[in-house]
Design brief:
The complex is a heterodimer.
Chain A (H helix, E strand, L loop, with lengths): L10 E5 H11 L4 E8 L2 E6 L18 H4 L4 E9 L3 E5 L7 E6 L1 H14 L6 H8 L1 E6 L27 E6 L2 E6 L2 H6 L5 E2 L2 H15 L11 H7 L4 H9 L6 H5 L6 E7 L5 E8 L9 E2 L2 E2 L4 H13 L2 H4 L9 H4 L7 H10 L1
Parallel strand pairs in A: 2-6, 6-7, 7-8
Antiparallel strand pairs in A: 1-9, 1-10, 2-3, 4-5, 4-12, 8-9, 11-12, 13-14
Chain B lengths: L6 E12 L2 E8 L10 E6 L3 E6 L8 E7 L3 H7 L6 E8 L12 E7 L7 H9 L7 E7 L11 H7 L1 E6 L11 E2 L2 H5 L9 E6 L2 H13 L7 E4 L15 E2 L2 E2 H4 L2 E3 H4 L8
Parallel strand pairs in B: 7-8, 7-11, 8-9, 9-10, 11-12
Antiparallel strand pairs in B: 1-2, 1-6, 2-5, 3-4, 3-6, 12-15, 13-14
């Protein structure tokens, strides 16, 4: 959505120092957001200076897309009830922001959220923030234990051509910077060195060397049909019974999970109501409950819903629901691994 | 446009249909259009919203919702009076393919409050009766006190054939129709399977057996349509609650051909 059609995509080599100084210069007009080391974790948060950036991070618990574009909690409307009902829209905030260092998985996750919130019906809260966010993606130099993006076409190097603004590849003391949108072209006024065939060759060698480091893989070919044929496979029941706590960690850390609940909060004098939404999870027992029944009463059914939404359901948007970031595995208290569940079905 | 922002609708009339079931006649400022089988998110500040099918076609800018009191939202609506306002968003979803059924025989099958989304189809057919072939309505309710729209049956019976049944007769009253399951009535019908379209709405377990019965009668899966109920918060394929194996019931449905939803996990069809 940010990659306007006709403009010349360019590539240049820029020293990291120059790049970070340029970032600082953006602070006049933009909120800077990026990965920061906090004790043993890396988190995406607002920066005072590009010096705080920790660009060598492996993974974060929460993805930048679901923190700064699709908000975990969002005020929707205010109502006041007197003789009549009045409905007040919350003015849409439009603060301009730059998110730096977004890994390919998380960039693809934002493109996935676009399918939900900028599809047939547009979500204005998401739309305004998406438009006002410049995304500077960063190709990966290392692979975490649970990363499987290379198996699902979402990394470790970003292949998407549009929908974000700039793409960085680490070249020791420099970045190879690829400009992917017109606004990035206008904004990025550093000349840098022209990129030739040798640099592009080096980039693809770097990619190959990262690709060699993946421990976790999944073969997604034919998975859709396999799931449908084995819909009552014992893996769902025994994993749910033996290990799943229905804690919803998997959903909360998933960068593509988009479900929300809408909540009304009434003031003490019963005269005003605040309507907000917050993230919801299909692992919650009431998620699919209706009057007279619950379509996913069983824990096994809820676990299956999550896994199939990631690995099957290409019919929903024509793409897989996973970007292979591995967060659901990392943050599961009992280390349930969706790639292992798929393999158990593939083996049988 | 903010789809989550509701519109105010005025309650022009309230009719008690059965125990805990009322029909609300609503109007909004400005024009409003909807097709049978679609729904509104109906609600009130403080309690939230629930998806409710249209129980009438839109006439003179007015439309109806027939609502059974079962939960928090419907419980609040139950306390509203004529002249009060409530909030709606919609219309949403894919309705019954009534236009594709023109020239064909139509079998309407409903159970309980499932007759509400079928009623606008009946109204549409009665308005332009000559455009459709033979039309039959099979309706089952728990008992005669729970049956909807009974006072309209005489009028409906002039244009379409009615087959009514109840699970039980509450009192040995003047119930002139059948007693037993809706599925039993299927056996009594003589239909032309190749030329028949069926619209089915009721509890999912009832639709399961009706759909199988219809297939046994020789109707194609793609000519049987069902209306599904799922939990919904948004109505616009965002909140994810109604997801049914990749489908969003709110946007891709609530009306589906049986072929699309048969055998999907976490459903009863």
């Amino acid at each position: 959505m940010t990659g306007e059609p006709a403009f010349r995509k360019s590539k240049k080599l820029v020293s990291k120092n120059a790049f970070f100084l340029w970032l600082n210069s953006l602070r006049k007009n933009y909120k800077l957001i990026g990965p920061v080391k906090v004790k043993s974790q890396t988190v995406f948060r607002e920066l005072n200076s590009s010096k705080e950036l920790f660009m060598e991070y492996e993974s974060t618990m929460l993805s930048p897309g679901k923190l700064f574009i699709y908000k975990p909690k969002e005020d929707l409307l205010r109502f006041s009830i007197n003789d009549d009902i009045s409905i007040d829209e919350i003015p849409l905030i439009s603060e301009k922001q730059v998110i730096i260092g977004v890994h390919p998985c998380d960039t693809n996750a934002i493109l996935y959220l676009d399918r939900t919130f900028l599809g047939a019906f547009k979500d204005p809260y998401y739309e305004v923030r998406r438009k006002n966010t410049i995304i500077i993606s960063l190709n990966c130099t290392q692979v975490s234990l649970n990363c499987f993006c290379s198996s699902v076409g979402a990394g470790p190097f970003l292949k998407a051509e549009a929908g974000y603004d700039m793409l960085l590849t680490d070249f020791e003391d420099k970045y190879l910077i690829e400009i992917k949108s017109r606004r990035a072209e206008e904004l990025f006024d550093i000349k840098g060195k022209r990129v030739g065939a040798s640099e592009l060759k080096l980039k693809s060698e770097k990619e190959k060397s990262v690709l060699n480091n993946f421990k976790k893989t999944i073969n997604v070919e034919g998975l859709d049909n396999l799931f449908v044929k084995n819909i009552e496979h014992p893996v769902w029941q025994h994993t749910a019974e033996e290990r799943c706590l229905s804690c919803s960690n998997c959903v909360m850390v998933c960068p593509t999970c988009f479900c929300y609940d809408i909540v009304d909060e009434t003031s003490m004098d019963l005269k005003t109501v605040r309507r907000f939404r917050h993230l919801d999870a299909c692992q919650d027992i009431r998620f699919a409950e209706v009057y007279g029944g619950n379509f996913r009463q069983r824990r096994a059914a809820r676990l299956r819903q999550f896994v199939l939404h990631k690995l099957n359901q290409t019919s929903q948007y024509g793409v897989l629901g996973t970007v292979g970031c591995g967060r659901c595995i990392t943050w599961c208290p009992t280390a349930i691994d969706l790639t292992e569940m798929a393999k158990e079905i593939q083996r049988s | 446009m903010n789809q989550l922002k509701p519109l105010k609708a005025r309650i022009k009339d309230i009719k008690l249909e059965a125990e805990d079931i009322k029909t609300y006649t609503l109007s909004t400022e400005g024009s409003f259009a909807a097709i049978p089988g679609q729904f509104n998110m109906v609600g009130y500040p403080g309690v939230g919203e629930a998806p409710i099918s249209f129980s009438s076609i839109v006439r003179d800018k007015c439309f109806e919702h027939t609502i059974k009191t079962v939960g928090r939202v419907t419980g609040l609506l139950n306390g509203l009076k004529k002249g009060d306002k409530l909030l709606i968003r919609g219309p949403y979803g894919r309705g019954w393919p009534v236009n594709n059924a023109k020239g064909r025989d139509i079998l309407l099958i409903a159970g309980g409050v499932g007759l509400a989304p079928i009623r606008p189809v009946v109204q549409m057919i009665l308005d332009k009766r000559e455009l459709f072939g033979d039309v039959s309505l099979i309706y089952g309710a728990r008992n005669e006190k729970n049956a909807l729209f009974m006072n309209e049956f005489d009028k409906w019976g002039k244009g379409i054939s009615l087959h009514l049944t109840v699970d039980e007769v509450a009192q040995a009253s003047a119930w002139k129709h059948n007693v037993g399951l809706v599925t039993d009535l299927l056996d009594m019908l003589r239909i032309k399977p190749d030329n028949t379209v069926a619209f089915v709405c009721g509890p999912e377990i009832m639709m399961r057996f009706i759909c199988r019965g219809l297939l046994m009668m020789g109707i194609a899966q793609s000519s049987v349509y069902v209306s599904l109920e799922r939990r919904m918060k948004c109505g616009i394929a965002h909140c994810g609650h109604c997801q049914h194996f990749g489908l969003f019931v709110c946007k891709d449905g609530p009306v589906f051909s049986y072929k699309e939803v048969r055998g999907l996990p976490d459903g009863l069809l």
